[in-house]
Amino acid sequence: MVIPFHVREMLQRIKARFDADQIPQQMAPNDAEFSTLRPSRRPTKEMVARFWDKLKPTASDEDQAQIADSATIEAAESYSANIENFIGTVKLPVGVIGPLRLNGMNANGDFHVPLATTEAALVASYARGAYVATRSGGISTAVLYEGVLRTPAFVFESLLKAGQFVDWVVTNVDILKSAAEATTRHGKLISLEPFIDTNVVFLICRYTTGDAAGQNMVTIATDALCHAITERCPVTIENWYIEGNFSGDKKASALGLVTGRGRKVSASVTLPADIVEKTLGTTVEAMLAYGRVANLGAHLSGQFGAQAHYANGLAAFYIATGQDAACVAESAMGVTRMEPRNGDLFCSVTLPNILVGSVGGGTGLPSQAAALNLLGLRGNGCGTALAEVAAATCLCGEISIVAAIAAGHFTRAHESLARQR
């Protein structure tokens, strides 16, 4: 048997660092007494101070001053709906790109887009993409479809029982729809699709959620739907779960790529060849050549979709505007296309899982509300426009990174903007 070189190297590093006689004792269960932090849901100045007393001496007074600054503590109670065991806020640098011109079905105009990140070169790259897109007349955007999924699972004795259950569900859809929608003013159950695996049935419940991202909304609505089932259905249910891990919630999945979970958005722009050369320092042909290789790499490695780095822009945009950042795991899927158009370069992105809201979640927090105000997309009536801005921002990042790699500028840019700055 051949032991891979990197395995031997790893074992040698471990042996050099640790005393073999002490490792068993070091890794044995430890039953020493400890003092737990009592959970707190309603932050007050006094509660924050008690938490910090628990955290010392590991945390210094300077650490406390950085996280629990006076402005944050004065507004402590305003965070009660968003966090437990509150001790303050973490400050992230926020950059802005734009104006980003959108010619969208919902987002129409010039937008300055806030991006919160600690990664140097990210904002500069997206800003370059925004500049070239705006110089080219702007990005066309449209929400193609929407629907947030929750997929409860029901377990039965047999396949026969599962089939009888599905028959009952299909016959009583109106009752279940009423039960779900009774929990929300804005959510609508738009489809209910059974999926059977022998004796287990997953119900794919798809909702529109108004201007909210809607994760909590659809959970509460689906719970009511499930209780309506258990109270009325004559088929014996052995067990049921509010989520059967089928929906793709906060994870990349083939289902999410094909059917979407959230808002499906497309964004496109045609870049004139002279703008590509003067602004991006490369050519249409060079970008297309690299795009073919990158597309092959995506297919060969089994990626969901084919794109360069949606997660960079989405994470920065989600954090800045108060979205659920963990949803980037599913939102950062989709397809980037670059094609020749009469000597110019057609660029587009389609993202099937944009999960953003202009209301609810973290959108009401002080900094995040200010970021949405900067966009002009805070509050009711702005959810779909916000989704189009998110997709257009991703397109800016795709244009910039493909141009940088095609021109051989990618490494140089990171050296100058990150390491050597």
UniProtKB/TrEMBL annotation:
Q: What is its EC number?
A: 1.1.1.34
Q: Which PROSITE patterns does the entry link to?
A: HMG_COA_REDUCTASE_2 (PS00318), HMG_COA_REDUCTASE_4 (PS50065)
Q: Which GO terms describe its molecular function?
A: hydroxymethylglutaryl-CoA reductase (NADPH) activity
Q: Which UniProt keywords apply?
A: NADP, Oxidoreductase
Q: Single Gene Ontology BP term? A: isoprenoid biosynthetic process
Classification via InterPro entries: HMG_CoA_Rdtase, HMG_CoA_Rdtase_cat_sf, HMG_CoA_Rdtase_CS, HMG_CoA_Rdtase_eu_arc, HMG_CoA_Rdtase_NAD(P)-bd_sf, HMG_CoA_Rdtase_sub-bd_dom_sf
The first-level EC class reads: oxidoreductase
Q: Which family does it belong to?
A: Belongs to the HMG-CoA reductase family.
Q: What is this protein called?
A: hydroxymethylglutaryl-CoA reductase (NADPH)
The taxonomic lineage of its organism, from the top, reads: Bacteria, Pseudomonadati, Pseudomonadota, Alphaproteobacteria, Rhodobacterales
